[in-house]
Amino acid sequence: MGVFRTFALFLLASQLGAASEVSVSLPEGVTKEILKAGDGVHYPRAGDTVTMHYTGTLTENGEKFDSSVDRGTPFKTQIGVGEVIRGWDEGVPTMSLGEKAVLKMTSDFGYGDQGAGGVIPPGADLTFEVQLLKIS
């Protein structure tokens, strides 16, 4: 009965566009929490070009290191082909068009032991709020 109730609440939240309390576990150190449901029909596949807004923070302390929202320009890339960090290649294809979600990933699915650009320390776990705007 508890599983059915949780699933029913998830469906209701998705239909209302409310934040979902259900987190989807993805393979290999990536999790997704749905903040706003997408259309539930259109999902990106490997090789598709996606356009999205995102804000990236360090999971440990919440410090923001990058944001397409702050720049006012959505980010456009091919997904699932190694153009972006592995956490995005794993997480974004689980999002449907219009969906807004939080993707959390361990460092091996982010920038690993190297870190990046002086703003992401080596071994840092990352959190991204991502909204999938377009798939082409």
TrEMBL record:
Does this UniProt record's set of keywords contain Hydrolase? no
GO CC, sorted alphabetically, is: cytoplasm
Q: Which reaction does it catalyse?
A: [protein]-peptidylproline (omega=180) = [protein]-peptidylproline (omega=0)
What sort of enzyme, by top EC class, is this? isomerase
According to the UniProt entry, its GO molecular function terms are: peptidyl-prolyl cis-trans isomerase activity
Leader sequence range is: 1-19
- Ranges for domain PPIase FKBP-type come to 47-136
Q: Which UniProt keywords apply?
A: Isomerase, Rotamase, Signal
Which Gene3D superfamilies would you find in this protein's record?
3.10.50.40
Q: Specify the domain of life of the species encoding this protein.
A: Eukaryota
Q: What is its EC number?
A: 5.2.1.8
| Keyword check for Transmembrane helix | no
Q: Name one Pfam family in it.
A: FKBP_C
Q: What is this protein called?
A: peptidylprolyl isomerase
